[in-house]
Amino acid sequence: MWGTTMFDIKRIRQEPELIKQNLARRKNPELPKMVDEVLKKDEQWRAGTKKLEELRNVRNTVSRELAASKGKDKEKIAQMKKVNDDITRAQAKVDMLFSQRRLLLMRIPNLIHDSVPYGADENDNIEVRRWGTVPKRDFEAKNHLEVLKELNLIDEERAAKTAGASFVYLKDDLVLLDRALQHFAIDLLRKRGYTLIYPPLMLRRNAYEGVVSLDDFEEVMYKIEGDDTYLIATSEHAIGTMYKDEVVLEKELPLKFVGVSPCFRKEVGSHGKYTKGLFRMHHFNKVEQFIFCLPKDSWKYHEELQKNAEDLYQALGIPYRVVNVCTGDLGPIAAKKYDTEYLGSDNEYRECGSNSNCTDYQARRLNTKYREGVGKPPKEYVHTLNNTAIATSRTMIAVIETYQQKDGSIKIPDVLVTYMNGKKIIKNAT
After folding, report:
1. pLDDT at res. 268
2. Residue 336: partners with Cβ closer than 8 Å, 6 or more residues away
3. N or C: which end of the chain has fewer CB atoms below 10 A?
4. Closest by alpha carbon to 212, among 241, 169, 170, 179?
5. In this predicted model, what pLDDT tens digit does every residue of 99-149 receive, in sequence order?
6. Which of left, alpha, beta for 141 (phi over 0: left; psi -120 to 50: alpha)?
7. Which residues fall within 8 angstroms of residue 101, CB to CB, at 6 or more apart?
8. What is the pLDDT of residues 33-70, one digit of tens each?
């Protein structure tokens, strides 16, 4: 299956048509053409490299002949100058072609797993299963923003005044709910053997390029002005870069992490979507799962990560469904992705987490491999996987819309009461 195989320039040379067929499933007609562009640049680079080696051989010959003349042969001196100039130009051209080929290679997305459904956009995602139902109510349900405003727990207007659109001030018990969800998810995952990580909140570009598509730098990330660093969009990215240019011992795998951090996203192009309140913000908190593993085990861990996320939502009593994301909605990094979607008060499902098996795509870009033992040569690239445990902003929406009461209060899910200092109901204090 495509998701378990290696993908590099050698494979493009050997199986260009198979790769083009796989890329064509992503519903982007430009992607198969990129394979031909890569092959063209690769052929030019290989020809340039061959010419460069020939020039170096000529220089070695001229150098020996010039030495034999004790540096007095003016013709050889002129020949040496010319060949050195030719080598300089040839080297510059080879370097340019290598960079062009590398850029093209980095823009080619991961190969899609056989089980990914074929489709154009999110409307073609295939439902895998659903859990839970909306509570029976004798009142008309409100959306989370209406509930929060009535409880005086959110201030969008002042945040827009001081920071801009898609920022909010969280207040009082809503802040506690955010923290309670983080602690709840962290505790569950640590009990399952995941190591807790609070990562750097900024990454250098050469590291960041290993875990995201190049387009994300304009569409998603905030750059630190005057510095080669970017605010992280998720702790997944920072954890994924931890083992950049390293070789991990096979016996140490899998490496399982639960990351917690604030996340910063431009969310360019999100206008017109469901953007009110907490759903789509430039800054929010998230607990993330991340695994480095052996290639043969990644599909097993893909299902484990999904189970962890569903166990969290079931413990919270929040209705949800899982969809297998189709080829046109998959994104460039994943070979396969599940989305978990909560059921809102309007009976619409909306995404609250994504579970991606990235196979060796990120590891190849980051040069993260494994070896069988100390002193043994590197064997293969590891596989990387990530899944949202809880993005607190969207999970808070799910809690609020699921547990709203007739009097406008919010019941706290039983599993969060301890984390809320014993508070069982959020009411308007005024």
Report:
1. 56
2. 3, 112, 113, 115, 116, 302, 324, 325, 330, 356, 357
3. C
4. 241
5. 999 999 999 999 999 999 999 999 999 999 999 998 889 999 999 999 999
6. beta
7. 9, 38, 41, 42, 45
8. 999 999 999 999 999 999 999 999 999 998 999 889 88
Of 368, 336, 331, 354, give the one whose Cα is nearest residue 240. 368
Cα 90 to chain centroid distance, Å, stands at 38
Question: From CA 58, how far away is CA 357, in angstroms rounded?
Answer: 50
* Single-letter code of the amino acid located at 230: Y
- Give the span between the Cα atoms of 195 and 197, in whole angstroms: 6
Give the C-alpha separation, 91 to 49, whole Å.
8
Looking at this protein, which amino acid is placed at residue 191? K
Tokens of 349: 């499902």
| Both tokens assigned to 256 | 């399982």
Residues 6+ apart with CB under 8 A from 271: none
DSSP strand pairing (255-264 vs 195-197):
parallel
Q: Where are the domains of the chain?
A: 2-107, 122-426
Overall fold of domain 122-426: BirA Bifunctional Protein; domain 2 (3.30.930)
What does the alpha-carbon distance between residue 320 and residue 314 come to, in Å, rounded to a whole number? 9
Q: Decide: residue 192, CB within 10 A, 0-12 exposed, 13-18 middle, 19+ buried.
A: middle
Would you say 275 and 366 are in contact if contact means Cβ atoms under 8 Å apart?
Answer: no
How far apart, in Å, are the Cα atoms of 289 and each of 98, 112, 141, 273, 302?
Answer: 35, 22, 32, 26, 11
Average pLDDT of every residue of the chain: 93
Rounded Cα gap, residues 393 and 177, in angstroms: 10
DSSP 377: P
CA nearest neighbour of 110 among 187, 19, 240? 19
| Phi, psi of 6, rounded to the nearest 5 degrees | -85, 150
Tokens 């808070």 correspond to what residue?
396
pLDDT, tens digit, 9 for 90 and up, residues 383-403: 999 999 999 999 999 999 999
Superfamily of domain 2-107: Serine-tRNA synthetase, tRNA binding domain (1.10.287.40)
Residues 267 and 336: their CA atoms lie apart, in Å, by 22
Amino acid at 420: M
